[in-house]
Amino acid sequence: MLTRARVLPRNGLKQLSFVGNTNNGTHRSLIIPTPTIKKTKRNRQRIRNVKIEDFDLDAIRNMEDPKELEYKLKQLREYTRRLYEDLKTSKKDVKEEFDYNSQVDVSKDAADIFHRLSQGSDATQINAHPGSEEDLSSLIRRTTLLEANQLLPPSISERIEDQDLIIRSLHNKSSQQWNPIIERLYQSGLIFEGISQKDMDMKFLRQIKGLTLENIERLDEMLLSNYQQDISKLSMTSYACLFENLGNLKPVSIQRPSTDPVISKFKALLKRIDESNLTREKPLKLNHHILNSCLNYTKKLKSINEINYFLTKFQNDYGIYPNKVNYTSIIQFYTQMNIPKKAWEIFATMKFLSKEHSPDIITYNKMLEVCLLEKDYSRALDLFHELTQAKITPTVTTLTKLIQIMAVCSGNSMTSDGKSESLRLLGWKYVPRIIESKRGEYMSKIFEVLGAMLSLAAYDGDVTLARALYFKYTTKKHQELRLKGGEGMSIQTLWKWALDPSILNHLLVVYSKFDAVKLPLLFNNTDGVKLRRNILNSVDYNGRSTDEINIPLLPVITLTTPEQVLAESKAIWSFCLEYGGTTNGLNDNIIREELITNGEWERLCKGPDSKELKSTLFSLISHWKTNLINTNVLNQKCLISYLTVPLRLGNKDEFLARFKLFTFQQKEFDDAISAVIDNQDNLITDDPIPDSSETNVVTSRKPADVDKHLDFLCSLRYKILATDPMYELEMKLATKLQDLELGIQVWKDRGIYRRTTHFNTLNKDERVRNDTEFAKLMIDFYVSQKMYIDAIGIIMASKRHIDWNYHMIKQLHQGLLQIEDKTNIKKLLEIVNKGSRIKLLEEEIDELTI
């Protein structure tokens, strides 16, 4: 085919003439327009001639201009693209060389190997690779050295002189252990002499995480020694490493923040930077990352004064004002301090400062935590609508927080505005959105999602669904921890982390709300029915799919009687306390036999002095609690939920049995200690008998019941001191069952507790609050017994200490109206109205003062 082309001067088009091989000699022509040349936009041009020297990480981290950062990002992408192309080319060359070498005849090597094998034990050792002079041990050593040099700069790994330690500590990128590395470097004495600053900054200091305070001090000392204590030579990367590791530490105590060693170290480093900048040609510039490290630790210390100190210093001395990340840290601090008003003020400031300070999804998630703290579902929904309008994509954490808020707010009619079921139904509607999200994000937050769903089921009283969710959560958590921890994690540690106390608390709450007749809320929604069915079908209580995890749930989908609920809740509680049933921490007989075998029991029965007895007992109890009892689960909140199950189901015997087994009173402890101490000898010498020829008669006296008291003292390993919440539960039970005898006994026990040191060490406001709550319960108890005069007597005796209002005495007032006791009604209303008038007068005085 012949082709002719010419440019038409009239319209600038090219005409292509095609001469075919046809017999009639016809010509075919095609007009193609010339492509118009457009100016390429600057941001679409490929950046060329990028070198590694263009990337100064210190300079990049200090950049504030978004355009410069964007340009550096484009340079990095171009550099990465070129590296990838070079890598592909090199791989292609290597493959071609390998293909060429693989064509060599291998028959000679095979014959040589056969000859060596036929020589027997006297033959020379066969190398790992034919033609290689290395044996297997040399190959392993060389490979280990290469891997160690990849994890650390060669000059540093040579100083450590332990490649196994380097690989063992740093091989797992997700959980590197830098403390052994710093300790070994510190012990070597060579420190960092002869190591280039580039290797120090890029391959060493930027990687260090998770150091203890002691090793941070050692690293700081080594860095200073490397420059002969010249503080003007330390790089910004060195300081960034120190600050970041300090910010990740946890406070040992929050009692005296001003003397905290980490805070002191922060201030010392800032002072050193200030002093070094006086002699530097190019002063160090601090950044928001340094400020955030200070805030991260200070918020864990819960010190407002220290937070204000760092914010003020960075603003006044360095001209660094909080950015988005810093403001988010401050919001988290105020949330932890239970000061939601300040958190809302910071959030409002972020929205009106500038676009760079606008809240992102992380900030919105923190504000949802504030809504959860305040139990304010309407504000949470407003936040969700606000971030949607701002085109911010909600994460799985966002939706999980919303579900938790809807569940908690539906707990009572006050926080739910009488719309409890509507809030729970709204919470369930967020679950499909979570499931439809990116699978990687969903699976990474699977435990948060299961926990939020369990809270919804708990507040709804759906025992069947809650059991299934608890089973899924615990088995999956156990399997994941076992895979991560491997053989290095003990059984107790494994179960300690797998058995989440908050998840157990939700399960106990739903047990207490058991109602065999009530239909679950999800039955009102088609999607909800499908979701519930899928969850129930995914669990196997018979243990066929989880042989190594035997959670003591009855092998039925649905519990039908209160007796089943009580039995299962009791089994689950014991299972969690004994680290998944792997210890016998609740078995007193085994503990006693162990003490008898070791001779401890006999020594305790002989009645040592008070100090020695208490020291020995507390040491034993501490040892048992650590090794036999899961103290994460044995807390007041979970125990109250455990006692609430028989309380709401109206089973007095089971409640009292649980109360007696897992709580103790201060008086019981004092009596047991005194009884053991007083029993010093089983034989005593009585006074001489009159008219007897013998001066001294040795008689035996029946020893005190020391065994019983020692059994009680040993059982303290799984007991909690009975405090106001426990006595309140007892009084509620007496009121519900109208048990006068139980109510009087609780009144006496609580009166004894009120005189103990534990109660009197509480602050005044807390003591008044506890007295007020118990007095209100006593009023309700006496009203249930129609003992109105006794109820009025409590109010009259406590009117100076308790601010009585009508809500607290409503039932008493209604009872007096029924019997038409006008005299006592008048007294009652005078007390209530007097309190209201005094409160109103105090408010007016405050307004005048302002």
User: Which strand order spans the largest sheet, edge to edge or round the barrel?
Assistant: 1-2-3
Count of individual beta strands: 7
How much helix, percentage-wise, in residues? 55-70%
Note the total helix count. Answer: 42
What's the Cα radius of gyration?
38 Å
Structural class by helix and strand composition: mainly alpha
How many angstroms does the end-to-end distance come to? 101 Å
Indicate the low-confidence ranges by residue numbers. 1-23, 34-44, 117-145, 680-704
Beta-strand content: under 5%
Shape: globular
The biggest beta sheet, please? 3 strands, antiparallel
Tell me about this structure.
Among the domains are: 35 residues; 41 residues, no CATH class; 140 residues, no CATH class; 128 residues. The protein contains 42 helices and 7 strands. Helix 36 packs parallel to helix 39 and helix 39 packs parallel to helix 41. Strand 1 and strand 2 form a beta hairpin. It is mainly alpha-helical and 850 residues long. The N and C termini lie far apart (101 Å). It has a 3-stranded antiparallel β-sheet with strand order 1-2-3, with no helix packed on it. The radius of gyration is 38 Å and the shape is globular.
What are the salient characteristics of this protein?
850 residues; mainly alpha; 3-stranded antiparallel β-sheet; two-stranded parallel sheet; 42 helices; 3% strand; disordered N terminus; rRNA binding; mRNA splicing; PPR_rpt
In brief, what are we looking at here?
Binds to mitochondrial small subunit 15S rRNA. Helix content is 64%, strand content 3%. With 850 residues, the protein is mostly helical.
